[in-house]
Write a structure and sequence with these properties.
This protein is 78% helix and 0% strand. It is mainly α and 219 residues long. It is globular and about 55 Å long.
């Protein structure tokens, strides 16, 4: 029987090589961004240097320059990387904990997972950027619009993850603002609050407050 399959082309034979190169590039880029995140956590914004990132990521200076030709490109990618890593972690933790839970526990689970997400390496790195942006206008010009855009994405993901309250967008936004403000305040003041009972009381009060928001709007 005649073989009517199309003849192999150079593009066909090159395809696996192209995929391998793309995967290698993606791994290198991720290694750089993970190393940059570690720099922020260990050394702060002032320690976020090319030399330190190269040493931690074990990539060449040429590879570093290939992926990020200047500091602005690195910062932009790093901000996006940190924000989305935290979102991915939050969603994974929420889904894992909500499975098997009662529908009425969704707010309590989401609020507790939100608190946990503030104690992750990603949020620690974000706080370093946030503090540095106060006096670094270039960083602020990158961080502020990226965070605003990310908030929209975060809220869209929350609506998908919590369909039971997705029909109450105003309450959801207010609940998010309250959780962000109270949890951040609690995080920053944690070193000065020795009693775990006080921290737990704040978190429990927040859960009751958010639950009341949804009840009031749904009434």
């Amino acid at each position: 029987m005649a073989d009517h399959s199309p003849p192999s082309t150079l593009a066909d034979t090159d395809e696996p090589q192209v995929r391998w190169q793309q995967q290698k590039a993606a791994r290198t880029r991720q290694a750089i961004l993970e190393a940059a995140t570690e720099c922020l956590i260990d050394k702060g914004y002032s320690g976020l240097t090319t030399v330190e990132i190269i040493a931690r990521s074990k990539v060449s200076r040429g590879a570093m320059h290939h992926h990020f030709s200047n500091r602005a490109e690195l910062l932009s990618a790093l901000i996006d990387f940190i924000l989305h890593r935290r979102l991915e972690r939050f969603l994974a933790d929420y889904i894992a904990q909500i499975e098997g839970s009662h529908r009425s526990d969704a707010v309590a689970v989401a609020t507790e997972v939100h608190w946990t997400s503030l104690k992750t390496p990603e949020f620690t790195a974000y706080l370093e950027l946030l503090m540095a942006a106060r006096t670094d206008s270039q960083l602020a010009d990158l961080l502020i619009p990226a965070t605003r855009a990310f908030e929209t994405e975060w809220m869209n993901e929350m609506k998908r993850a919590m369909p039971q309250v997705s029909g109450q967008p105003e309450a959801m936004l207010l609940a998010n603002d309250l959780a962000s403000a109270m949890h951040l305040g609690l995080l920053l003041n944690s070193p000065f609050i020795e009693s775990e009972g006080r921290k737990t009381a704040v978190k429990n009060r927040l859960i009751r407050l958010i639950e009341s928001l949804y009840r009031d709007e749904g009434a």
